[in-house]
Task: structure prediction
Amino acid sequence: MNRAVYPGSFDPITNGHIDVIERVAGMVEHVTVAILINAKKQGLFSLEERKELILDAVKHLDNVEVVCFSGLLADYCRDNHIDVIVRGLRAVSDYEYEIQMAQMNRKLYPKAETIFLMTNPIYAYLSSSLVKEVAGFSGCVSDLIPELAYKKLIEKLHDERDDF
Ligand code: PNS
Result:
């Protein structure tokens, strides 16, 4: 297992994502964090903004790169000779969606194997969507996402309020 991709929408990255990245980085030679478009989610940050936040959060890991890709994950894996896809599993509720994606990716690119890491229980409830929702109502999320991501999130939410 030399090269793995950790795909997601990362809008924005959370401490739960970082926990998974750190663990994968300790298992393989090279990890690509791939920021992809989830057609079911409307983004708050642009892909480039998300990339900047992830780069800052993983700067202590020298075998991790961060890319943006607007196509299919299976095509990204094929084009870049990546045969391991890593996803975090937080709860049973994630399972159905994850199984569907893993099976579809297997159909599109059979060489890629999806492996799942159990999320650290302290982050089992954590998602980017919940962080944005709570922050949108001025709830405290400063200990759930990296420092720069928190700063940019608060700025973005203020900008959105000003535009309203
Ligand atoms: O963090 P998310 O939103 O759960 O990640 C989902 C993501 C972005 C990995 C998924 O939507 C994806 O792979 N999008 C890229 C387009 C694609 O390949 N879609 C088919 C997935 S089977």
In short: The pocket of 4'-phosphopantetheine is lined by residues 7-9, 36-38, 41, 72-73, 101, 104-105 (CB under 6 Å). The first helix runs from residue 15 to 25. Residues 3-124 form a domain with the Rossmann fold fold (CATH 3.40.50.620).
